Amino acid sequence: MGSCVSTSSKSTCSSGSNGDSASPSCLEIGFCGQKRARRTFSDHVVSLHQLPSLPNRIVTNGKSESSCIFMQQGRKGVNQDAMIVWEDFMSEDVTFCGVFDGHGPHGHVVARKVRDALPLKLLSSLHSCESRQNRSGKAGLKGNIKPDNGESEKDISAEDELISRWREAFPKAYKSMDKELRNHPNLDCFCSGSTAVTIVKQGSNLFMGSIGDSRAIMGSKDSDDSMSAIQLTVDLKPDLPREAERIKRCKGRVFALQDEPEVSRVWLPFDDAPGLAMARAFGDFCLKEYGVISIPEFSHRLLTDRDQFIVIASDGVWDVLSNEEVVEIVSSAPMRSSAARILVQSAAREWKLKYPTSKMDDCAVVCLFLDGKMDSESDCDEQCFSSAAVQSNHAGKDIESDDGQKSEPSLQRNFTVRSSEDTETYGDGISSAEDQNWLGLEGVTRVNSLVQLPRFSEERPNILL
After folding, report:
1. How many other CB atoms sit within 10 Å of the CB of residue 163?
2. How far apart are CA 186 and CA 193, in angstroms?
3. Do the beta carbons of residue 450 and residue 103 sit within 8 Å?
4. Of 299, 326, 298, nearest to 310 (Cα)?
5. pLDDT grade, residue 76 (50/70/90)?
6. 164 exposed, middle or buried (CB, 10 Å; 0-12, 13-18, 19+)?
7. What secondary structure letter does DSSP report for 293?
8. Could you give the CA distance from residue 30 to residue 50 in angstroms, rounded to a whole number?
9. With CB atoms counted within 10 Å of each terminal CB, which end of the chain scores lower, N or C?
10. Spatial separation of the C-alpha atoms in residues 198 and 83, rounded to whole Å
C-alpha cells in the first residue's frame, strides 16, 4: 500500500523475525468443527508451522477448486499485499477468503502475519462463542422470531444463533490479532499496519469483516439475467462522516494536505504526522489512542442462486477500476482460473493509461465462484500465466519469510520516473460524502497511506511510546 516519505522517527523497527516466532496464542489455535462433522476444536489444532502444508490453503498465484487468486507487485518497492483462500476451513462447506494490504515501513510483514494468524484466531473466537453458549444452555434468540415461511422455529433459531456467533467472533478475533501485533517482541507496528477484508462462506451464508480501504464486491444476475455489481464492504476512510466523528472525539485530527485536497488523512493532535489515509487498520499504534481502530465492520448476507462470484481486492485495483468494470472483466474471462490474473492485468493497463506519471500500486485479487466449480484445463495451461505471474510466484516464496531486511524480487517493467519537484502523492484522492451509506468513489489514483512518520522532539514528552 502506501509508503513513507519521511525517514526520521524514534520508532526503531526490527522485523528480522520469522513468522514462526509468533506468540503461543498464535501457535495454539485450531479448527472449530461443526456438530454434523463430529469434530472438536482440540481434534484439529494447527500451528503456523503447519500452514504451508495444508492442501486446501493457497496464498500465492494459482487456483483452488472454486477460486483463483493473483497478485502483482507495483512500482513502490516491496510488495505489501497478501491474500489467502482456505477451502474446507471448518468443514467441507466452509471457505475463508481474505486480502490484506500493508502500509508503512514494515507493512509487508504485518500483512502476512495477519494473513496467517487471523483465520486461526477467527476459528478460536468462534469456538469460544460456541462453548460459552453450550455451557450456558441458552438457545440464542430462540423464541424471539416467529416463523412465517413454513420454517420451523427451531430452524430459524439455529440460523440466528449461527449469525450471532460469527457476529461476536469477528471483532473478538480482530482485537486479538491487533493485541498480538502490539506485543510482538520482534516487530514494531508503531508506524506500520494493514487493511483486512475477510469473508467466510458457510453454505448459503456469507459473513464479512473489514477494516481499511480494501474492498469486496459480488457479481450477481438481475431480473433480466444481466450481470450487476453489488458492493459488500465499505471503504473505511477518514472522510466517511461517522469515522471522522469518532477520530475527532478521540482528539485525532482529520484534514487533507494543500496539494491533495481530496484526500483526507488522520493526524496526531500535536504534530502533522503520520497522515494515515484510512480510519481503521491493524497496527498503526501511533494513532490507536486517537481514533484509528481495528474493530471490523461486520455484515451478513444470505446468498441466492443469482449470486455468481465474489471479488476481493486491494485498493490498487479499485483506484482504477469501478465495481461494474470488475464484474464485467471477471464474468467475461475465457476461463475462471484466469479471471484474477486478467483483472490484475486490466488494472495495470488502466494505471498506465489514466495515470502515466503515478506509481502503480500493488494489486491483489481473490475471485471466489459461488457455485463451487472451476473450469477444467490442463496443468500446462494453468501454469501458462504471463511472465509477470511467474516472477510473482517466485516472489511469493520470499513472501513467506517475514524477514523485513530482505527485499523481494522486482518484476521486470519500465518504471515511471517522477521529478524531484513532484510530491509523493498519486493524483486525485476520494471525495468526502455526507451519506452514512458510504460507497467509495471509483476510478481515482492511489495515494500514500502515510505521508510521514511521527517525529517527537526531546522537549515534548513521548506520550505514545
Report:
1. 16
2. 15
3. yes
4. 326
5. confident
6. middle
7. B
8. 11
9. C
10. 10
3-state secondary structure at position 263: coil
CB atoms within 10 A of CB 465: 11
What local confidence, expressed as pLDDT, does residue 168 receive? 95
Give the residue from 258, 451, 229 showing the smallest Cα distance to 325.
229
- By the 8 A CB rule, do 153 and 145 touch? yes
**For residue 363, what are the β-bridge partners?**
72
Q: Where are the beta strands (DSSP E) in 32-175?
A: 45-46, 57-58, 62-63, 67-72, 81-87, 94-103
Name the residue type at position 328.
Answer: E
| Cβ-Cβ contacts under 8 Å for 8 (sequence gap 6 or more) | 453, 455
Which residue type occupies 50?
Answer: Q
Dump pLDDT digits (tens) for 296-348: 999 999 999 999 999 999 999 999 999 999 999 999 999 999 999 999 999 99
Residue 76 region, left (φ>0) first, then alpha (ψ -120 to 50), else beta?
alpha
| 324 strand-pairing partners | none
- Top-confidence residue, 157 or 268: 268
Closest CA to 399 of 79, 169, 128, 54: 79
Annotate 211-253 with DSSP letters as a single string. ESS-EEEEEEE-TTS-EEEEE-S----TTSHHHHHHHHHTT-E
Q: How far apart are CA 339 and CA 69, in angstroms?
A: 8
Rounded distance between C-alpha atoms, residue 164 and residue 179, angstroms: 23
CB 66 within 8 A of CB 96: no
Residue in the structure block whose three cell numbers are 513472501: 399
Give the number of other CB atoms < 10 A from CB of residue 8: 10
pTM: 0.75
Residue with cell 490498487: 316
DSSP 371-420: T-------HHHHH---HHHHHHHHHHHHHT---TTSPPPPPP-PPPP--T
Return the ∠ at Cα 162 (arms to 132 and 205), rounded to 5°.
155
CA angle centred on 294, ends 292 and 296, rounded to 5°? 120
CB atoms within 10 A of CB 304: 10
What sections of 313-369 are H helices per DSSP? Answer: 315-318, 323-331, 339-354
Map residue 146 onto helix, strand or coil: coil
In degrees and rounded to multiples of 5, residue 93 shows phi and psi of -100, 15
What's the rounded mean pLDDT across residues 274-301? 97
Each residue of 195-234: pLDDT tens digit? Answer: 999 999 999 999 999 999 999 999 999 989 899 999 999 9
